[in-house]
């Protein structure tokens, strides 16, 4: 990955790693046609399928493509291969806002400017029924001019599933930015929960530290649920008042976005002839365009029900499943075949028998081969699975399900791959190179 230059869908050159999140990695990319820099968020489709999020993700992406605002990271397009989903987003060159705060608290005017931009983005999205639900430092980015860009807007499905998984407490570190009603898992209003997080963010910008903090997690929850925090004495009284209205543990009495936008401290420095939040409406794409993006590029999950796009992406050279994982690390490979499933499985059975692998399970579309010797990482077992793409066209997936990776790779390279040529129509990814 570091040494090889990769091109995604013949459109984006994939560059350095920008960061890593719960669901995948973010890479720098460059549009080969326009030279424009983009951020490519790569998500493992399996993870999304596992948490049952495909439908919700599709819905959210279609909504997200409707959100065009100067303070929201723009989603350019969504692409998918058999195993990955790629979000092609606006690239925020300035990195995370909180790298600035890490160097020390911000001046009041500077903090206010970011807060205004944040509220402008939130207001715009809320008005369209889109909630963030995961506002936190990693999602506040800056562009090259220092303009705030909120990322991951509309991907609530991901935030929610992290929470349900209990990941909130682990991967995402502390729940410092999360509203009390979200922590206590009461049904909650996405708008009010986002407002709470904005309050925590404002506090951090001005103070340089968190309002709710404790080395003991339970103690921290307690403080959040009671709205127990203390403003440093250098906070202007107007800010203290505004914060007390935002960090109200009761979502019902918590201030609304509309009220925040009327607040005199908030309004300072704003061009009063323009109303924040409504000035940035741009041409919205036609709903039909959006559906198109989502339908053609996302509906690839069902292996036995692939569409034309899948077939293209499965043709040699188009499959990108190996793109971000070098072949050395992968314990699976795929190829397409025009032979019948019966012929394909018989071939594997025959080769397996020759190298001392025994068939332990077989049905119409799959086969398991197992070694008889205990390797150092347990018995080697390999699954071969066939997916129907069309009447004569099949995708075959060969995967190690247990045992030692080195044994597996050695077996594949030496005994299996060289002998299945007659059933292979096209290798997927770069498998042919590793032969
Ligand atoms: P989570 O797992 O909760 O989503 P996260 O927001 O940190 O956490 P990602 O959204 O996957 O995870 O982003 C990972 C990192 O990549 C971010 O912290 C940020 O530094 C960087 N990044 C994300 N999007 C962009 C972008 N559009 N431009 C530049 N850098 C980005
Ligand atoms: Mg993010």
UniProtKB/TrEMBL annotation:
It comes from the Eukaryota. Its EC number is 2.7.11.1. It is an enzyme of class 2 (transferase). GO terms for biological process: signal transduction. SUPFAM superfamilies: Protein kinase-like (PK-like). ATP binds at residue 41. The keyword Cell membrane does not apply. SMART domains: S_TKc. Residues 301-325 form the NAF domain. Its cofactor is Mn(2+). Belongs to the protein kinase superfamily. CAMK Ser/Thr protein kinase family. SNF1 subfamily. This is non-specific serine/threonine protein kinase. It comes from Erythranthe guttata.
């Amino acid at each position: 990955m570091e040494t090889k230059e990769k091109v995604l869908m013949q459109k984006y050159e994939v560059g350095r790693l920008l960061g890593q999140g719960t669901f995948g990695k973010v890479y720098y990319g460059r549009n080969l046609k326009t030279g424009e820099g983009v951020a490519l968020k790569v998500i493992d489709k399996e993870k999304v399928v596992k948490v049952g999020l495909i439908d919700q993700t599709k819905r959210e992406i279609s909504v997200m493509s409707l959100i065009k605002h100067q303070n929201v990271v723009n989603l350019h397009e969504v692409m998918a291969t058999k195993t990955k989903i790629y979000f092609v987003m606006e690239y925020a060159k300035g990195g995370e806002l909180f790298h600035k705060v890490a160097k020390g608290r911000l001046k009041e005017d500077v903090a206010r400017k970011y807060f205004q931009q944040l509220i402008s983005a939130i207001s715009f999205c809320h008005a369209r029924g889109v909630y963030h639900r995961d506002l936190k430092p990693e999602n506040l980015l800056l562009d090259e001019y220092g303009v705030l860009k909120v990322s991951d807007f509309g991907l609530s499905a991901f935030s929610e599933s992290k929470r349900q998984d209990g990941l909130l407490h682990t991967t995402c570190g502390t729940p410092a930015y999360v509203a009390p009603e979200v922590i206590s898992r009461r049904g909650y209003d996405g708008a009010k929960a986002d407002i709470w997080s904005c309050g925590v963010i404002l506090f951090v910008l001005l103070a340089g530290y968190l309002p709710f903090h404790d080395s003991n997690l339970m103690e921290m929850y307690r403080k959040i649920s009671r709205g127990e925090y203390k403003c440093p004495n250098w906070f202007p009284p107007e800010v203290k008042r505004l914060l007390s209205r935002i960090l109200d543990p009761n979502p019902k009495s918590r201030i609304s976005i509309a009220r925040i936008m009327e607040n005199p401290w908030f309004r300072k420095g704003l061009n009063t002839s323009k109303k924040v939040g409504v000035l940035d409406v741009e041409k919205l794409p036609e709903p039909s365009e959006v559906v198109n993006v989502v339908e053609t590029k996302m509906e690839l999950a069902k292996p036995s029900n692939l569409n034309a796009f899948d077939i293209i992406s499965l043709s040699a050279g188009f499959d990108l499943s190996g793109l971000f994982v070098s072949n050395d690390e992968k314990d699976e490979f795929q190829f397409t075949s025009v032979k019948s499933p019966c012929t394909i499985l018989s071939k594997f059975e025959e080769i397996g028998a020759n190298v001392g692998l025994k068939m332990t399970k077989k049905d119409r579309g799959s086969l398991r081969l197992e070694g008889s010797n205990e390797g150092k990482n347990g018995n080697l077992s390999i699954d071969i699975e066939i997916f129907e793409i069309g009447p004569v066209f099949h995708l075959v997936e060969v995967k190690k399900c247990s045992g030692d990776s080195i044994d597996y790779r050695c077996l594949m390279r030496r005994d299996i791959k060289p002998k299945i040529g007659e059933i292979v129509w096209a290798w997927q990814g770069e498998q042919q190179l590793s032969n």
